[in-house]
Amino acid sequence: MNTTGQVRIIGGKLRKRVLRFPSCAGLRPTPDRVRETLFNWLGQDLTGLTCLDLFAGSGALGIEAASRGAKRVVLVEENTHIARALRSNLIGLPTTQIEVQRTDALSYAIAVSSSKRSPAYDLLFLDPPFGQHWLRTLEPYLKNLLKSNGILYVEAETPLSELSDWQCYKSGHTMQVYYHLMRRNTERG
Question: pLDDT class for 2, splitting at 50, 70, 90?
Fold first, then answer.
């Protein structure tokens, strides 16, 4: 695999494992410090949770969740080379709960929404490429992706206070990214 980037898993049973990925425009893995903050907010034990990473990229967010006990993690990645790298990174890891779906985020969201089943995920990682209006595009599908008490993690180029029915309750920022933890606003009808 021709790789130009790498990121390490920072916690859980897969701690210190290195994920390698090819160079690709718009691919910006969530930095260690931001992931550490996120998993401190979420708690280090995600045992039993189902997680969806709609823009998997390096896979760091979803694999961190699996490392901390998530029972199912779906990594959605449109780019063929990156999806191949994700699968390659999973080989040899002591985990079976991670699956890679090579499709685009919107197609996956539409497929889940049209399945007529209740939402399957407890936690959704939403870290789309910046400047492409992905958050607004996916907004109508969020309620069909997440359980009513599910948590939404969003990275964006600007601060967010809400996204559809989801209200920000924790946030932070670095020089490059604003990151948010959101819950469904139960006061909306």
Answer: low
Tell me the mean pLDDT in the region 52-67.
94
Q: Judge whether 101 and 111 are in contact, CB under 8 Å.
A: no
Fold of 5-184: Rossmann fold (3.40.50)
88-122, pLDDT tens digit by residue? 999 988 888 999 999 999 999 999 888 877 677 99
Distance CA 131, CA 134 (A): 8
Q: Which amino acid is at 68?
A: R
Q: Are 61 and 67 in contact (CB under 8 A)?
A: no
pTM assigned to the model = 0.92
pLDDT at 162 over 80: yes
